[in-house]
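Look over this today:
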Amino acid sequence: MQGRKIVIGLMMVAGLASRARASSGDFEFPANGTITGKQSYCGGGSGHNSLDIAGTCGDCVVASRNGTASAYTGCGDGCGPYSGGSGCNGGAGNYVAINHDAGYQTRYLHMKQSGILPQGAGIDSFRVGWRASTGSSTGLHLHFDMWQYGVKLTSWLDWAGDCGSQTTIGNNINYDFPSIDAVNPDKQVSCP
C-alpha cells in the first residue's frame, strides 16, 4: 500500500540505559556510518543538500532530537538499488518525518518498511527505523535532512563532517541551530 501514513509518538521508557544529550541541546547524528553526500554527492554531482550516511542494510536509525513523528511506508524492505520502486513516496522510499521545537523538522529517508515502529512502540523508544535502499536510492544509506518552518536548511552541512568521515549515533552535530532550547530531556537510546 504505497504512501500509507502512520503517526507515531516518541516516548521515554523506564529501565533503559540513558545518556545525557550534549549540553547545547542541538541535533545528533541519527546513524552510524560513512558520510557519502552533503551539499553535493561525495565524488561528484551537485544540488544534494542533505546528509547521506552509508552503512549496512538493517543498521539502526534513531531520532536526531526529541519530537513527534509521522511515518510514510509502502515501499517494501529492499536493500538493493531502487529495490523499493524509484517513485515510491516521491522517491523518498519508506521514511519518517519528525517535528521538533522551534519549527524544525528532520527527515529520515530510504528505510526498511518493517523497521518503522507503530504508535506506542516498546523499548526502542527513539529508534525510528532501519537503514535500507528504498525509493530512488542507488545504494544502502540513510538520507537525512533538516527543515525549519518549511524551508530546507543547508548551512549545518558544513559542520556535519567531511566526505568519508564517520558518524556515530548520539554524537552532537557541531552547529549552533538558531532558536533551539539549550535544555532538552535526556535521550535514551536503544538499538538492538
